[in-house]
């Protein structure tokens, strides 16, 4: 079990590959489709990077692992109640909150996301917030599409973005 100055880390097998989960102080602080949690850790805010990584048993992170498994098993709202923590500017925080508010099975454009976050003239900022998001798939940047409906980008690849959207029945 990690101690207070460490980030608990586990890697969950999913239908679309390994999902690294990083937790600290009862919150999910990192989630990404990689078998190497250090790839997320190096991208984190300096206040989190200073904390070391400590392997955690999945049983010790059951508050996190159970809803993740439930999501991949088809309970699309299982991730809704997870506590997340991701340092960022007030604008980024609003954009990430707007991403979490997009329900499974729905998508929004970068422009619509910016408007929902209170800054309709900032679709590029919405794209940058998606690119900086380190809590996939809980902070659901995969639900944000280009204005023309195309997938756009996804840090973990368009195949995974498409799979997540099909899983959520937002894409056929």
Short key terms for the protein model shown above:
7 helices; four-stranded mixed β-sheet; 34% helix; single chain; 172 residues; alpha/beta
- Numbering strands along the chain, what is their spatial order in the largest sheet? 3-2-1-4
Could you tell me the strand content as a percent range?
Answer: 15-25%
> Which assembly state applies to the chains in this document?
single chain
Distance between the termini: 41 Å
What's the helix count? 7
Q: Would you report the number of β strands?
A: 6
Question: Compute the gyration radius: what is it?
Answer: 15 Å
Judged by helices, strands and strand pairing, the structural class is: alpha/beta
The helix-strand sequence is EEEHHEHHEHHEH
Largest sheet: 4 strands, mixed
Q: Provide the low-confidence segments as ranges.
A: none
Task: Give the proportion of residues in helices.
Answer: 25-40%
Fold and architecture overview:
The structure is a single chain. 34% of the residues lie in helices and 18% in strands. The protein is an alpha/beta fold and 172 residues long. The strands form two sheets. The protein has a four-stranded mixed β-sheet with strand order 3-2-1-4. α4 crosses α6 and α5 crosses α6.
What is the compact description of this entry?
With about 170 residues, the chain is an alpha/beta fold.
Task: Outline the fold blueprint.
Layout: E1 6-14, E2 17-24, E3 27-32, H1 38-41, H2 46-49, E4 52-55, H3 62-72, H4 90-101, E5 108-109, H5 110-116, H6 123-132, E6 144-145, H7 158-167
Parallel strand pairs: 1-4, 5-6
Antiparallel strand pairs: 1-2, 2-3
Helix pairs in contact: 4-6, 5-6
């Amino acid at each position: 079990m990690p101690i207070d100055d460490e980030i608990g880390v586990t890697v969950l097998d999913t239908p679309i590959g390994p999902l690294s989960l990083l937790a600290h102080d009862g919150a999910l602080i990192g989630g990404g489709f990689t078998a190497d949690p250090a790839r997320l850790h190096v991208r984190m805010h300096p206040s989190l990077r200073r904390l070391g990584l400590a392997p955690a048993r999945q049983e010790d992170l059951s508050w996190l692992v159970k809803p993740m498994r439930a999501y991949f098993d088809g309970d699309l709202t299982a991730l809704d109640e997870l506590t997340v923590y991701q340092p960022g500017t007030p604008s980024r925080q609003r954009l990430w909150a707007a991403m979490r508010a997009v329900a499974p099975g729905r998508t929004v454009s970068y422009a619509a996301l910016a408007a929902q976050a209170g800054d309709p003239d900032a679709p590029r900022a919405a794209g940058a917030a998606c690119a900086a998001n380190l809590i996939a798939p809980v902070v659901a940047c995969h639900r944000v599409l280009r204005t023309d409906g195309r997938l756009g980008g996804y840090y973990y690849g368009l195949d995974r973005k498409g799979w997540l959207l099909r899983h959520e029945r937002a894409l056929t």
